[in-house]
UniProtKB/TrEMBL annotation:
One MF term in the entry's GO annotations: kinase activity
Family named by the database record: Belongs to the FGGY kinase family.
Positions of the Carbohydrate kinase FGGY C-terminal domain: 268-466
Assigned keywords, A-Z: Kinase, Transferase
Gene3D superfamilies in alphabetical order: 3.30.420.40
UniProt superkingdom: Bacteria
Domain annotation Carbohydrate kinase FGGY N-terminal: ranges: 7-230
Protein name: FGGY-family carbohydrate kinase
């Protein structure tokens, strides 16, 4: 389309950096991706920031190449761009903009002491992955770098800063750095005062607001792409500077946008390497729970989040093993065909899953009180080991911790959820993931046509809102009346049999957690 305004969303996920380009009809025109992996270094899960840039460049070049192939012209101008990343974590820089310690990701469970103290201090749950927990734990550890801190941000905030020079963060992502006052759409000032009183004895040369990004709601001014930033994305020099940038968000916020779950009483579940459900509340919870995170939508509405560090990693590892066997036999099968076949097999399982059990914990899981993980597969002498039972067990295992967290919201806070909108790789095989999740959570699960686009598409929509919103038009209205007005969702209801099957599984799973704890204690 001549003079069509183009918008790009780029998300730094746990295993992929993905870029999506959309036009004015909100549908993807081109995309690109780069695979990367975290590594355990000196006791911390981390990523190399040099690879963040090379991965961004790779993803963009793939997108630009696809655009040229489909449109017949070079991609030189993008009107608006948005960056999102895996949530929270800790990136600390000194006054020379040098990284003080390697990036500490959301996956780390090394801040238990700090998170516990902060939660009790604020009467508000502070998860271990939050930036404030990492910062305070570094202080408790007497880490040398603390007094050199000039700026602390998240991965999305870091990328945005280097591309624009702006030290800002979208409110949804900022709510994973420090608790947010939803009325002010800013960090909770009362809690900041309490924190600074707590750390007074440390005599730090900084105040919290001085080293944290400025908080911006969706649609707010977050800067433009600089000449240096354009070259960081596209070293070939074809991409022009001047793109309007949306406030950087986390993958939780982009998931809400991608499923149109930003209004009160809506909910979504993002299911990939990790899994989290997000329920937008009418009011704050009456109490606080270590299993429930209180974050916000990209416009600052209070949102209850059940976050599990582990989800499909174990399933992916077993699928890779099967792929090696197939290759060793001289056969070929695509990843899509492999996963589709394995997931569909899960529907053929015995009601009791053959009495097989597994624990999918590759890393710690705060909801169940584990600082480390040991992936386990367990069978009893009378178990029935078949491929359907094996796959059902691993999918149920992935869903189990999410179920334990969701039960707190439903049973203790009487939060009602009419349906969950699902997105992420778990739903790529039609129907299977939806049905098993609906049975596990006893909530209808819906998937939109766009569900496979996920976070980067959600970030592209936030960037689109940045330049297309009308005066007074809220993000909620923009998504409902424009983006999703013609989209239909495929819904799956839980079944009585499925609910009963998962109920039996979760009882065995809770007992098996004692085995998992023993494995963590005894196998190093």
């Amino acid at each position: 389309m001549l003079n069509e305004k183009l918008t790009m969303g780029i998300e730094f996920g746990s295993t992929r950096i993905k870029a999506v380009l959309i036009g004015e009809d909100y549908t993807p025109i081109a995309s690109g991706s780069h695979e990367w992996e975290n590594r355990l270094e000196d006791g911390y899960w981390t990523y190399d920031l040099d690879e963040a840039w090379s991965g961004l460049q790779d993803a963009f070049q793939q997108l630009a190449s696809e655009y040229k192939n489909t449109r017949g012209e070079e991609l030189t101008k993008v009107d608006s761009i948005g960056f999102s990343g895996m949530m929270h974590g800790y990136l600390a820089f000194d006054a020379n903009e040098e990284l003080l310690v390697p990036f500490r990701t959301w996956r780390n469970t090394t801040t238990e002491e700090a998170a516990k103290e902060m939660s009790e201090l604020f009467s508000f749950n502070i998860p271990q992955r939050w930036s404030i927990a990492h910062l305070y734990q570094a202080m408790l550890n007497n880490e040398e770098h603390v007094n050199k801190i000039n700026y602390v941000t998240t991965l999305a905030g870091y990328i945005h800063w280097k591309l624009t020079g702006e030290k800002v963060l979208g409110v949804g992502e900022a709510s994973g750095m420090f608790p947010i006052d939803s009325d002010a759409v800013d960090y909770n000032q009362s809690m900041i005062d309490t924190f600074e009183g707590k750390i007074e004895a440390y005599n730090t040369p900084w105040k919290l607001r001085e080293i944290f990004p400025k908080v911006i709601s969706a649609g707010g001014d977050a800067g433009i792409l600089s000449e240096e930033g354009a070259h960081l994305i596209d070293p070939t020099g074809k991409l022009e500077a001047g793109s309007v940038l949306a406030p950087p968000e986390g993958d939780a916020g982009t998931g809400m946008v991608a499923t149109n779950s930003v209004a009160e009483k809506t909910g979504n579940v993002s299911a990939g390497t990790s899994v989290f459900s997000m329920i937008v509340l009418e009011e704050e919870l009456k109490d606080y729970y270590t299993e429930i995170d209180m974050v916000t939508t990209p416009t600052g509405k209070p949102t209850a989040m059940v976050h599990c560090n582990n989800f499909t990693t174990d399933i992916n590892a077993w699928a890779k093993l099967f792929a090696e066997l197939i290759e060793s036999l001289g056969l070929e099968v695509s990843n899509d065909q492999l996963f589709s076949t394995l997931f569909k097999k899960a529907l053929e399982a015995d009601d009791d899953g053959g009495k097989l059990m597994s624990c999918n914990y590759y890393s710690g899981e705060p909801i169940t009180g584990l600082e480390e993980g040991r992936p386990l597969f367990v069978q009893m002498p009378d178990s029935v080991l078949s491929l359907p039972n094996f796959m059902r067990t691993h999918i149920y295992s992935a869903l189990a911790t999410l179920k334990l967290g969701m039960d707190i919201l439903v049973e203790k806070e009487n939060v009602s959820v009419d349906q969950l909108l699902g997105h992420g790789g778990f739903f790529k095989t039609e129907f299977v993931g939806q049905q098993l999740m609906a049975d596990a959570l006893t909530i209808p699960v819906s998937v939109m046509e766009s569900a496979g686009e996920g976070g980067p598409w959600g970030m592209a929509l936030l960037a689109s809102y940045q330049i297309h919103k009308e005066d007074g038009e809220t993000l909620e209205d923009y998504l409902t009346n424009k983006v999703f007005s013609s989209q239909e969702a495929s819904s799956v209801n839980p079944t009585e049999k499925g609910i009963e099957n998962f109920k039996q599984f979760i009882e065995r799973y809770v007992m098996m957690l004692e085995v998992e704890k023993s494995a963590v204690e005894n196998i190093n």
